[in-house]
Amino acid sequence: MMTPSDPQVGATTSANRPPTKQAGLADPAPTIRFSGEQLAEVRRLQALYPDRRGALLPVLHMAQDTFGWISLQAEEYVAGLFDLSPAHVHEVVTFYTLYFQQPKGRHVVAVCHNLSCYMAGSRDILAHVKRRLGIEVGETTDDGRVTLQSVECLCACEAAPMAQVDERYEMNLTPDKVDRILEGLR
Amino acid sequence: MAETVLMRNFERGNSHTLAVYRGAGGYGAWEKAKAMEPAAITEAVKQSNLRGLGGAGFPTGMKWSFIPKNHTGPVYLVVNADEGEPGTFKDRYLLERDPHALIEGMLIAARAIRSALGFVYIRGEYVQPWRRFSAAVKEAYDANLLGQGFDIVVHRGAGAYICGEETGLLSSLEGKKGWPKIKPPFPAIKGAFGQPTIVNNVETLCCVPPIIDRGAAWFAGLGTKTQGGTRMYSVSGRVKRPAVYEAAVTVTLRQLIERAGGVTGTGRLKAVVPGGGSAAILTADEIDVTMDVDGLKNAGTMIGSAGVMVMDESVSIPEALLVLARFYAHESCGQCTPCRESTGWIYKMVHRLVEGHGHKDDLDTILDVAKRGAGTTICAFYDGAVGPYISYIQKFRPEFEALIRK
User: Residue B2: what pLDDT?
Assistant: First the structure.
């Protein structure tokens, strides 16, 4: 039985993954494994909840911060840390919008398109961002710099139109302000 | 005219720190509550006529009293900080500018319901508010306000509007997808991790310290016969000064729009969403309503989260409905068939209308689909979607009909 204290847990490939090696392909995913310090943090988080599964969302945030996105391999690894089936973790990952199921850019620009932002011209802002980046919503620039999203209400309607850029809320956007923000993303 | 209760500390420098909060009398109510019997705290909150400020408007003291008296196991206090209702941004301000008011409210509520553990579920996108609030929790631990019989776990969501629904939130807190649960049992009987749980909104709990501090009668006296206090109105859209405004719940929608500097754009008011995206729309001649739970209920809409979105004459109502229809189609959790299917269908039909490809029967079909699904689902999400579907079309039908060519 796998236990969360075993650092190897979840790192092994389960039978339901495609046999990439046999197909003559190198496994493209980097090694998915938390450091000893991170595993201690996982155990700390799990102990905060009456049932350790309560820590699943926070640990998935950790996984995304560490591995860049949540691959099927990362789902399996996290499932092992919780003694859950990978299917359960997959169901959770696919339910929430903040978990990326494919590699994302170094920065994420999420333009709000709900009602107050719409009234304040979010369509023009989004069109401007698309033009500047040369990508559509859901795409990432070729240099891996920016992923663009169009999202539901971020609850900063007093500063519409607005967007979330990584962890920051960028308020009262104008095309000029958008240009300055995009230039600052490396 | 405007009594400042919830936003009393916002203009102080470093209002988010324990030192400033304490300097303004903070945690005085908690000192007072520690000398009170738990039942007396609940009774005070009942007498204050405080009603939930997250959306449903349920009387808070009554909710607290539903915790089974003979229960010997753990009781949890869960704070709904999963602010996501379109047009609402008040809880973000409270988390960032007065986090200790929430902690103090939680301490008092926890004493009332005999809870030793509280969870604060903050929407995943609120990274800065999450940091701010987490820092305040750490300060409270260092000052021995927490960890002395009550602990707080700060939990980040991961992006899903439905987790603002209290049982969806509990599913998510338990490490699952945020599917709402069938009620009964209500969370007060069987909530988080199967234990009795009280779920309260951020702003609701922030009302509790002033109630204990200044008395239930004072708080009740600020409002109407059925709802006490003030609340924070998020005002946005076509107004001169979009912002959060605190006012007694007896304020009218017209007064709020005036406080926000009046209508911009054409300067002529067309419509107002009074209580977040899920509230039925009001026309320009329906704004002399009081902004309390019952005032808006009697006007055929709802106060919800008090997110006021103002539309001037130049705003297209069909396009506004399209924006919301897309929202509901995207955010439906998919658990109940009427909601999952209808939100998708209606989004497609409104889209077709706005694109100029509508059929003459489409409006009646949308109304029919909307009405059939109402009341048939596990949670209130779909009923919330039906509010805009029906009201936008019924109150602005000629504008929709003008889009139909055949």
Answer: 59
